[in-house]
Design brief:
The protein has about 600 residues and is an alpha/beta fold. It contains 25 helices and 19 strands. The protein has a 6-stranded antiparallel β-sheet with strand order 2-3-1-9-8-11. Strands 4-5-6-7-12-13 form a 6-stranded antiparallel β-sheet, with helices on one face. A hairpin with an 8-residue loop joins strand 4 and strand 5. Helix 7 packs across helix 21 and helix 11 crosses helix 12.
């Protein structure tokens, strides 16, 4: 998977900046515990931390080549996996390229030499990479279509810093951690973050499906992939069989690995389908049983309370699925003390405000996975592309003139000080973002009113909400050197499903009908028919009490970075409002978590508010 970092500056000599570039790269060591490398020249410096997954001996980075003997160096640092690298390798060989390794890294580098920026159009996978092109005096940055792998950058006069995580850029004194009042809505609800932006001033992300070029003339960013709407001509049977064929092929591709591989198995439809396909392919190849993993909380049997988004616990269904699939299943139990100890590590992995127990429990899960597997498959994004979330099926949420996943939920920005609200107008920010994203949705002439609205709802969920899930998965997994692959983010599947009518997506009257129908024969009925249940949340009374006490303490702490922006007299009202049931939150503690995490983030990184 790996971590990448670098620095390009056309106004200074970087050839002696090995210590500073080494520091930028070194903070990414958890992402790449197996190897490290630096490459420096007058105007470009590139670093890499490696997690060896394919061709451990041959895939070292940064990797360097030239277009011709004696030409200027072309240098690659890359994170991710190119699943079709064998096909690309064969094509490159026919075009006269000589490849010395079995790695997808060398295929990516030679593909750039052969096709330039259009090489990304040929790639199937998850990736974020940087190429310093000495011939063209150009830095080329690229990110995969769905944004599975992260890539941040900071532009300043004459130069640009980049890295897999903000910490790589924070390690360079040219960048100072500052935020603004305008960023408070996205700090309190990261699902309201426009793609490409971050709460830190001057820190941006390369947007999913985009490439960025940096030359002496400046920065240009362009889009190489987007969804397109057209009429779906397959009937229901053909659509179901196509979904099955696509996923069978995608999962088979994503099993390529030279290191131990496992899968997450919650007992939900999404992860069970992925595990079923992976286990079947491994059996056919003569490999041992698939290792699978799930997470639950200590005393969950007594503390759990059903909610709209979490109607039941994963544990019984994970056990049922594991027995049916014949996998080697392990359940990871996390208690309050473990979460408390894991939170500082999760925060350091984030660099941005954490999600509290959701990050901490996932970190503990991945720590356990990493003891036996270096690669794991996961079911993220199935709900976004098949239409699985409750708000897709609640008329009030669907037809509300706002984000369906937000609806009438508590807005923490409503409890900002009146003068701050007047300056930043958070409700207007929310409405403006909503209108901007709606204008991007590629419509389909002649589509039914419901079909058109559900196309909008799906598109909105594939923006910041999906980015948040993928970002959490990346940060918590890479914090322990684990590569997590997400078959439902394959762009070929996403493109196909985008144009399947909503009536087909709900053909059996339930959520994710197509996925259920495509794999009903591979799963036990109890799993196949299970309603959507989100990633587990802690219902521990002790944890909820800690969060509430923490918010009350924050309200009385004049040293809090948030002291001047919150209406502290109304925080008691906010705690009371947080008890109101919503589609998304398990209980009031989860509504309030962002306040504590933003406060801690600003203290830990010494982020100034301006």
């Amino acid at each position: 998977m790996c971590g990448i970092a670098g620095w390009v500056d056309f106004t200074r000599d970087l050839s002696t900046e090995d210590v500073l570039v080494g520091a930028m790269t070194g903070v990414l060591a958890p992402r790449g515990p197996d190897d490290e490398g630096l490459w420096l020249s007058r105007h470009a410096a590139v670093g890499h931390r490696r997690l060896a997954v394919i061709d451990a001996a041959g895939g070292t980075q940064p990797m360097v080549t030239t277009r011709s003997p004696g030409g200027e160096p072309i240098v690659l640092t890359y994170s991710g996996e190119i699943y079709n690298f064998r096909e690309l390798r064969a094509e490159l060989l026919t075009r006269g390229h000589r490849l010395r390794t079995r790695s997808d890294t060398e295929v990516l580098l030679r593909a750039y030499v052969e096709w330039g920026s259009s090489a990304v159009d040929r790639m199937v996978g998850m990736f974020a990479f940087a190429v310093w092109d000495g011939d063209r005096r150009e830095l080329f940055l690229a990110r995969d279509r769905l944004g599975v792998k992260p890539l941040y950058y900071h532009r300043y006069p004459g130069g640009l810093l980049f890295g897999s995580e903000p910490k790589a850029i924070l390690a360079n004194p040219l960048f100072t951690a500052r935020t603004s009042e305008d960023a408070l809505p996205m700090l309190f609800n990261s699902r309201l973050t426009p793609l490409g932006r971050t709460p830190l001033l001057g820190l941006s992300e390369v947007r999913p499906g985009h490439v960025l070029r940096f030359t002496p003339d400046g920065v240009t960013e362009s889009r190489y992939w987007a969804l397109h709407s057209h009429e779906h001509t397959d009937d229901l049977d053909k659509t179901v069989s196509t979904v099955r064929e696509l996923l069978e092929h995608i999962v088979a591709e994503q099993l390529v690995s030279d290191v131990p591989l496992g899968a997450l198995l919650s007992g939900g439809l999404d992860s069970s389908v992925v595990a079923a396909l992976a286990a079947g392919h491994l059996r056919e190849s003569g490999a041992g049983p698939l290792a699978t993993y799930s997470v639950d909380f200590a005393d969950a049997e007594s503390h759990f309370r059903p909610t709209t988004l979490r109607p039941d616990r994963d544990s019984p269904f994970a056990t049922l699925a594991a027995a049916h699939l014949g996998v080697d299943h392990r359940e990871v139990i996390v208690d309050d003390e473990q979460m408390r100890a894991a939170l500082p590590v999760a925060r350091r992995a984030r660099d941005l405000p954490s999600l509290g127990q959701f990050d901490a429990s996932m970190l503990e899960l991945f720590r356990s996975v990493r003891r036996t597997s270096t690669v794991a498959l996961s079911g993220e994004a199935a709900d976004e592309v098949f239409g699985g979330y409750p708000w897709f099926h609640e008329p009030d949420a669907v037809w509300a003139d706002t984000f369906p996943w937000l609806g009438d939920g508590v807005r923490l920005t409503d409890f900002l000080a009146p003068d701050v609200r007047a300056r930043i107008r958070p409700r207007e920010q929310e409405r403006d973002l909503y209108r901007t994203l709606l204008a991007e949705v590629p419509d389909l002439p002649g589509e039914s009113r419901l079909g058109a609205r559900m196309r909008e709802a799906l598109y909105l969920s594939m923006q910041a909400p999906l980015s948040l899930l993928l970002d959490r998965k990346d940060r918590m997994s890479m914090a322990v050197g684990l590569e997590v692959r997400v078959p439902f983010c394959d762009h070929r599947l996403v493109e196909y499903l985008w144009n399947v009518p909503w009536e087909m997506k709900t053909a059996d009257g339930r959520e994710k009908s197509l996925l259920r129908m495509a794999f009903a024969d591979r799963l036990p009925p109890g799993v196949s028919n299970r309603p959507k249940s989100a990633y587990p949340a802690s219902f521990s009374p002790g944890y909820a009490a800690e969060v509430t006490a923490g918010v009350r303490a924050l309200a009385g702490d004049p040293a809090s970075p948030l002291a001047e922006v919150l209406d502290r007299r109304r925080l008691a009202d906010m705690i009371a409002a947080a008890d109101r049931p919503t589609l998304t939150h398990a209980n009031h503690a989860h509504v309030l978590i962002p306040l504590l995490e933003v406060d801690r983030w600003m203290r830990d990184l010494r982020v100034s508010l301006c």
